[in-house]
Each structure stands twice: as structure tokens, then as C-alpha cells.
Amino acid sequence: MICKIAMQAAALEAMGEAHAPVAMLKRKVTSGDNSNVEAQAARYYWPRMMGEEFRRDRTAPDLNALLNYGYTVLRAATARAVVAAGLHPTIGLHHSNRGNAFALADDLMEPFRPLVDCCVRGLAERNGPEVDSEAKTALARLIALDLPLGGGLTPVSVALGKLAVSLGQSFETGRLNLALPSPPDALTLAGLGS
Length: 194
What we know:
two-stranded antiparallel ribbon; Four Helix Bundle (Hemerythrin (Met), subunit A); mainly alpha; about 190 residues
């Protein structure tokens, strides 16, 4: 959760939007998110990232269609990483819907979602909210984007694998030690989708 909120703050900053309120929220995250900090961050984040009128609606044909496509690509890469790490994709940490075959993938992809958001904003500003071949290519390329992780740069697809493996190791050792990436620099985030 802290990593996702940090990525959201970095994404807003890269887009020239006020980000301090989201950045401050990451300090309020507690185990289990009893204060619902994730929802507070989302209420601040979405209108600034996608415009005041934007509402996240999985069935809407506008920017939501681009977000859906990008999240689907990210979810597939995350599910692949989860299975490759020997974890069971249906056993989630926070996502626990019985009908969700990829609950753990949904949990682990959360910190990476703002990358899709930045790409979608860039695509929409340039070409509008069409899910065309150019948009699909740009969103699919996100899994090759280098992220700061462990003192170096690691492609998103590899970072997902390292995160899944570190989760498995955390279960084995009983000590939480997740390999989470840092946000990329503002120039990288601002250039996604353009």
C-alpha cells in the first residue's frame, strides 16, 4: 500500500499536479489499512490524474477502456510472475473474492498501477481515449520499463518476478521482506504514452 501511494504521488508530481497530500498519506498507512488510506489517496489522485469529471468505471468506454487494457496487460504479467514463483494465484492477501482466480496477482500489481495511469494520460492527451494499436503497443511496452529496485534498474516484468519470489520467501521465513520498486524519475513517468 505504501509503495502504491508513493507511486501515485510520483505520478502526480511528474504530471505537474499537486502531489504532497498523497505523499503525506503514505505515512498514515497501517497494517490492514483500517483507516482506509488507500481510498483517501484515490479520492485525491483520480481527479488530478485524469481530470475533475473522471470516474473510474470498468464498463465505461472512455479513458476507462485504456485503463482496463493496461491493467489487463499488467495483471497477466503479474499472474505469470506469481505462478513462476510457485505461489497460488487464487489465494490473495487483500483481494479475496472467491470467484477471482488471480487474487494474488491483483494484490501484487497494485504498486505498478500508476505506471498504467501515466501512460493512459499521455496517450489520451496525444490521441484521445481510443484503444487502438498504438495505445495497445504503448501499454504492452510498460512491462519492459526499467524501475529502480535494489540499487539498480529492473524491467517491470522482472520486478514483478522479484516481488512474487520475495513474498514466497517472506512466507517461508516468517519475516516480511518484499522487493518493491521505487518510483521512476519524473521525466520517465511524464514521457509514458507520449
